[in-house]
Structure formats: structure tokens, C-alpha cells
Specification:
Blueprint: E1 4-12, H1 13-24, E2 29-39, E3 52-62, H2 66-77, E4 85-93
Antiparallel strand pairs: 1-3, 1-4, 2-3
Helix pairs in contact: 1-2
Length: 100
């Protein structure tokens, strides 16, 4: 069985900033990366003309916890509302290697 899976989320920057620490503390979460930038596709709130600030979250989760963690992140991000973002699950990961 695969050990880990990546869950990704693309949300408005403010939402990503607010939930980063909460996601990191969820049971089964091994790693969270938050990157920010601008997007014109997903969000109705656009601070820069046709662009809005966006956050991309990459979350590495233990495979056995992935369904529960996915549901919790969905709630934390408020993705049940329209035009606030999206989530996805990537291919399984067998090993995490640190380069530090």
C-alpha cells in the first residue's frame, strides 16, 4: 500500500493564510506548502483588475487518513460556497525525501 498522497487546493490568498496552521495540525498531515500568486480564473474577488490574489496549498497526507483529512480541509476552506476555490487529490507517493 502507498504511504502518502498529495492533496492540493487552489483558493483565495486570505483563505489559504487563515487555514495553513489548522491544516498542518490535522491528524495524518505530514507536510503543508503554501504558495501565493495571482489568478484570474477561479475567484469572483479580483483586487488587481482582472486578477485576484490566490493561494496554492500542497498537502502531503498519510494514505490511511486521506479521506478524513480531505473532508476536514474542504470544510476549513469553505469550499461549499461558490467561487472560492477547488481541491484535488494527486497520485500516491511511496516515499518522502528531505533535502535539508
Amino acid at each position: 500500500m502507498d504511504k502518502f498522497v498529495e492533496i492540493g487546493a487552489h483558493v483565495a490568498k486570505g483563505i489559504g493564510d487563515e487555514v495553513y496552521e489548522k491544516i498542518y495540525k490535522l491528524d495524518g498531515v505530514e507536510y503543508v506548502l503554501l504558495e501565493t500568486g495571482r489568478s484570474k480564473d477561479l475567484f469572483s474577488d479580483r483586487q488587481f483588475g482582472e486578477y485576484g490574489e490566490a493561494a496554492l496549498l500542497s498537502i502531503i497526507v498519510k494514505s490511511k487518513n486521506k479521506d478524513d483529512v480531505f473532508s476536514q480541509i474542504f470544510e476549513l476552506l469553505g469550499l461549499d460556497e461558490a467561487s472560492v476555490g477547488l481541491m484535488f487529490e494527486e497520485k500516491p507517493i511511496n516515499q518522502i525525501k528531505s533535502y535539508f
